[in-house]
Design goal:
The structure is a homodimer. Chain A has ten helices and no strands. Chain A is mostly helical. In chain A, helix 1 crosses helix 2 (25-32) and helix 6 (79-95) runs antiparallel to helix 10. The A-B interface holds A 18-19, 21-22, 104, 107-108, 110-112, 117, 120-121, 125, 150, 153-154, 156-157, 160-161, 163-165, 167-168, 170-172, 174, 188, 191-192, 195-196, 198-200 and B 18-19, 21-22, 104, 107-108, 110-112, 117, 120-121, 125, 150, 153-154, 156-157, 160-161, 163-165, 167-168, 170-172, 174, 188, 191-192, 195-196, 198-200. Chain A binds a DNA duplex through residues 3, 24-26, 34-42, 45-46.
Chain lengths: 206, 206
Amino acid sequence: MNNKEKIFNVSIDLFSQYGFDGVSVRQIASEVGIKESSIYNHYSSKQAIMNSILDYYVEEMTNDEIPLDQASINLDKGFDFFYKAGCDAFLSKLKEDKMMKITRLFFIESYHNEEVKSFLKKSIIEGPIEGWMVLFNLMKSKKLIKDDCDVRQLSESFFYYGMFLLYEHFFINYPEDDDKFLEDFLTKTEKHARTIFDSVKIEGIK
Amino acid sequence: MNNKEKIFNVSIDLFSQYGFDGVSVRQIASEVGIKESSIYNHYSSKQAIMNSILDYYVEEMTNDEIPLDQASINLDKGFDFFYKAGCDAFLSKLKEDKMMKITRLFFIESYHNEEVKSFLKKSIIEGPIEGWMVLFNLMKSKKLIKDDCDVRQLSESFFYYGMFLLYEHFFINYPEDDDKFLEDFLTKTEKHARTIFDSVKIEGIK
DNA sequence: GTCTATACCCAGATAGAC
DNA sequence: GTCTATCTGGGTATAGAC
């Protein structure tokens, strides 16, 4: 691993622990094993390091589309199968050590970093919500859930539970139990999905 | 308002906007209209200002116990009435301008401030969850909800939705629509409570 | 590409006159 | 209680030798 890569990885480690403002260029340099002035041979500024981390994460996270026809097929195999398949796709991304760290970085920086904020809002909250609305509408057309239920409300009721688990982990419990969190996340949201589904499913559907 | 109070209030404003590390003593002094050295006649350090804000918030937030017998009476008037009463108690605290600001401050500082972190964990997450577990058990004993449902899971499914609305507001949308948020919070969580309740209620109960 | 040296700035905090 | 003046330390970043 060359020094540029080292700077990149060390910065992810430190920024995700202490936040962007809580880490100095000196600290990064010292952790890499070079002098701080050498950093500037690879990145033009501290902000430039942060930007490269942002770009990396956005790139990695936005190429995992779930094709709707596949979702439809999964849904025919029962709700539990369908849910597990969708959740696994998201978790496999998150499971990589680097992605967990950057996710925490995104959460903690979102309150004052406009770029992070708009990414979270668009790609991590609004995007999935719209995806779930499509799926609940699909369930309606398949006569799995009642016709009069509010699809938007249903999507939020379902999805925000998992979002809060993420917040809770990254702000309150991090970094203990990183692995345990990923395990529990699936089983907990699965039970929750069941609860939501049960509230609107048509009699006789499992 | 004397200068000590001014320092206190200005600090709440600035800390909640930019975070503790994002605000300098000079900024606070300038906003108050005095020199930074004068700050130290009222508070021994920047950290001391922060601590007094923490103490104030903890004091204000931890004297609003909901007596269980009252909750039981409310519950007999129907689930919707019961829920609205409980939620109003919490919202009336939050509605004060100062409390909204400090709540945001708590959220954004929680990732690296151990005191804030443990308060949030204990009093804002675990405490209410345990309260809701008591209430769902009460509903069980009143034969309102099914006997085989998981009360812990139910409490989380219910409560985490509202917690995420808080996170979303304070990190992503703040400070736009502060008032609108407080309005929407009640109606949104009410609908969500309905969804959760419907998934476990015994046939014939409203 | 890495180093030493340094510029420049702003932070938190203190001393002592008034 | 507030001021001016100042200390000390840490931050980002640059210049120029090797």
